[in-house]
Amino acid sequence: MRRALSACLALCLVLGSCAAQKREGTFFAMDTVMDLTVYGDEDILTDTEALIRDLEQRLSVTRPDSEIYALNETGKAALSEDTEALLRRALEICALTDGALDITVYPVVRAWGFTTGAYRVPGAEELAALLEKVDYTKISGLTLPEGVLVDLGAVAKGYAADRAAALWRERGVESGLMNLGGNVYALGTKPGGDPWRVGLRDPFSDATLAALEVTDSAVVTSGGYERYFEEDGVRWHHIIDPAAGTPARSGLASVTVVGAEGTLCDGLSTAFFVMGLDRASALWRTLEGVEAVFVTEEREIFITEGLEGHFQPMNDYKNAEIKVIRRG
Amino acid sequence: MVILAILVLSLAASVYLLTRRPDGRVARIYVDGELVREIDLDALAAPERFTVATDRGENVVLAEPGRIRVESADCPDQVCVRAGWLSDSAAPIVCLPHRLVIELAGETSLDTEVG
C-alpha cells in the first residue's frame, strides 16, 4: 500500500513538473503581435518564437537581408527550402483564385504606402504603369521578369502557423492555440477535450460577432476595417484588388476562412475578400476541407455549410439571420 | 501516513489551481511583452486616466468601470485609438509602433479572437 502511494506521489510530481504544462507567451514579429498558449515542454515557447523570427528574416519584403528582398533586387536568388516551398504554394493559390490573390501586386501596395506608412492615393496614370508589372503568370521557374516584384505577406503568417503547428506536433503537443496577428491555429482540443473557441471580430464595432468552435484548424480573417487611411473623406483600406490596383470594394466587410492549412486559409481570406460573395462562394464549392464566414457591408452573415453547429452569433448578432451557403 | 497527507494536500492544491476563477475583469497592460500595469476594471469606482510611456512613444489610457481604451497616442497609425473600448472581447488592443498590448484577463468565453 505504502509503495503504491509512493509510486502515485512520484507520478504526480513527474506529471506536474516535466509533462505538458500550460505555457503562454507574447512577442512582436512580422509587423504584428503574436500570442501563444501551448501545453508543452519548457523550451516550446522560445523555440516557436525562434522559428517564426527565422521565417520572418527570410520572407520579409522590406528587410534588405531577406531572401525575398534579394529575389526582388536581382530577379533570381538562392532560396532556402521554406522560402521556395512557400513561393510555390503561393503561386498555386494565385492560380486557384484566378489572380484574386496575386503576390506580384507589391509595387501597387507600396505606391499606396501600406508597407511604409507613408499613405497616399496614387494617380490613375501611375497605377496603370504599375499594373503592367502585376501578373503572377509571368513568373516561370521562380525567376522574376524585369520589373516584377513579389511579396509573400498575404501568406507568410499562415505559413508560419503551419510550421509552428508542425513543430508543436513533433514535440508531442496535443493542445495549443496560437494567434499570429489574426492568423489563428488551434491544435487539438482544449485540455479538457472541448473545442477551442475563436471569436470573430465584428467589422462594424469593437465587439465580437460570433464564436467559432474548432479543433486542428487554422482560422484567418481578412477585413478592410483595421488597416486604412482617409483622404478627402474616403476610406482607403489595405486589401488591394490586383485587377484594379485600388482597395477591393466587393461588398464584403470581412471574410474568415477555416481549414487545416494555414497558408491556404491566409491566401484564400484575401482572395475571397477581393472576389466578393458570389465569386467566392462559387470557388468555395470547388474546394474541399475549407469553410468560410462572410460578413457583407449590409451586415448580413453567410456561413458555409460545414460550420453549421460550430458558429455561435454573439452580442448584436444573437438574433441575426445566418444564411448558409450549400455545396449543392 | 505522512505520504498520504502530502498526497491529499497536493491533490487539493491541484484541484484549487485548476478550478479557481479570477474575480473580475482585469486589464493587463504589456510593453514589449513585459507586464507594466494591472487594473481590476470591475473594482474601479471612478474613471482613471494615465499615461503609459514606452521607449517608442506614449499612450494615454482611460480605464472606466468594466472597460478600458487608449484615448490618445503619439503613434503614427492610431490603430490603438481607433480600436475603441475593450470590454467583452478576447481581442487585445495593440499599438504596434509602441509595442503596447492591453488585454483582458478574467471571464471570457473565448480563447482568442481574429479580425
Keywords for this entry:
heterodimer, A: 328 residues, alpha+beta, three-stranded antiparallel beta sheet, 9 helices, 16 strands, 34% helix, globular, B: 115 residues, mini-chromosome maintenance (MCM) complex, domain 2, elongated
Could you explain how this protein is built, in words?
The complex is a heterodimer of chains A (328) and B (115). Chain A has 9 helices and 16 strands. Chain A has helices spanning 2-17, 44-59, 67-74, 81-96, 106-111, 124-131, 153-170, 262-275, 277-284, and strands at residues 21-29, 32-40, 175-180, 183-188, 196-201, 208-214, 217-223, 228-231, 234-237, 240-241, 246-247, 252-259, 290-296, 301-304, 311-313, 322-325. Chain A has a 9-stranded mixed β-sheet with strand order 1-2-3-4-7-12-13-14-16. A 3-stranded antiparallel β-sheet of chain A has the order 5-6-15, with no helix packed on it. A two-stranded antiparallel ribbon of chain A has the order 8-9. In chain A, a hairpin with a 2-residue loop joins strand 3 and strand 4. In chain A, helix 2 packs antiparallel against helix 7, helix 4 (81-96) packs parallel to helix 8 and helix 8 packs antiparallel against helix 9 (277-284). Chain A is globular. Chain A starts with a helix and ends with a strand. Chain B is α+β, with helices and mostly antiparallel strands. Chain B has helices at 2-19, 79-82, and strands spanning 26-31, 34-40, 48-54, 57-64, 67-73, 93-95, 100-105, 112-114. Chain B starts with a helix and ends with a strand.
Summarize the structure.
The complex is a heterodimer of chains A (328) and B (115). Chain A is 34% helix and 27% strand.
Could you give the topology of this structure?
The complex is a heterodimer of chains A (328) and B (115).
Chain A: H1 2-17, E1 21-29, E2 32-40, H2 44-59, H3 67-74, H4 81-96, H5 106-111, H6 124-131, H7 153-170, E3 175-180, E4 183-188, E5 196-201, E6 208-214, E7 217-223, E8 228-231, E9 234-237, E10 240-241, E11 246-247, E12 252-259, H8 262-275, H9 277-284, E13 290-296, E14 301-304, E15 311-313, E16 322-325
Parallel strand pairs in A: 14-16
Antiparallel strand pairs in A: 1-2, 2-3, 3-4, 4-7, 5-6, 6-15, 7-12, 8-9, 10-11, 12-13, 13-14
Chain B: H1 2-19, E1 26-31, E2 34-40, E3 48-54, E4 57-64, E5 67-73, H2 79-82, E6 93-95, E7 100-105, E8 112-114
Antiparallel strand pairs in B: 1-2, 1-7, 3-4, 4-5, 6-7
